[in-house]
Amino acid sequence: MIAFRPSVEAMIPALRRYARALTRDADVADDLVQDTLVRALRSEKLFHGGDIRSWLYTILTNLNRNRRRSLARRPQVSQLNEDDEPGANGTEAEGRDIERALAGLVEEQRSALLLVVLEGMTYREVAEIQGVPIGTVMSRLARARAHVKMSIDGEKVTLRRVK
């Protein structure tokens, strides 16, 4: 069996990358990663082998889901963004378009897309992390990709909540 703590430590950069893409907020992402690490290290004795990567992503995904549920119960405060700066170059504008497209996704779709595209996970790994069948992951990915494409192409996108 591999050493637990060094394996967890080696996963920190990937966890941070996923959390930042998932939350779109560096501070919230860092808090999520820290909470994930605390839970993992406290539960070291409960980990009986297997894929530590999937286990850590599952913890992070569940913590983010709980965070979003908690936020949904609070009143919303919106900030004024000045995203449409006239001097922005093409790369910055494309980045904003992709960020907006990802922000428009339902959490489960965004999570599945980020785990597959950003983290290079298999559909089976994503299914384990999200606790759903592979077919559901495939459906979420298809909808997410279609939404991102339509959003970037400037087509009107309607959101549908999918399990």
Task: Please explain how this structure is put together.
The protein has 163 residues and is mostly helical. It folds into 2 domains: 4-72, RNA polymerase sigma factor, region 2, helix turn helix motif (Rna Polymerase Sigma Factor, Chain: A); 90-153, Winged helix-like DNA-binding domain superfamily/Winged helix DNA-binding domain (Arc Repressor Mutant, subunit A). The protein contains 8 helices and no strands. It has helices at 4-10, 12-23, 26-42, 52-72, 90-103, 107-118, 123-130, 134-153. It is globular and about 50 Å long. The N and C termini lie far apart (36 Å). Residues 82-87 have low confidence and may be disordered.
Strand content: under 5%
In quaternary terms, these chains amount to: single chain
CATH superfamily placement of the largest domain: RNA polymerase sigma factor, region 2, helix turn helix motif
**Helical fraction:** 55-70%
Rg over CA atoms, rounded to whole Å, is 17 Å
How many separate domains?
2
Shape: globular
Give the ordered list of helices and strands: HHHHHHHH
Name of the CATH class of the largest domain: Mainly Alpha
The CATH topology annotation of the largest domain reads as Rna Polymerase Sigma Factor, Chain: A
Gross CATH architecture of the largest domain? Orthogonal Bundle
Structural class: mainly alpha
Query: Low-confidence spans: pLDDT under 50, at least 5 residues?
Result: 82-87
Helical run tally: 8
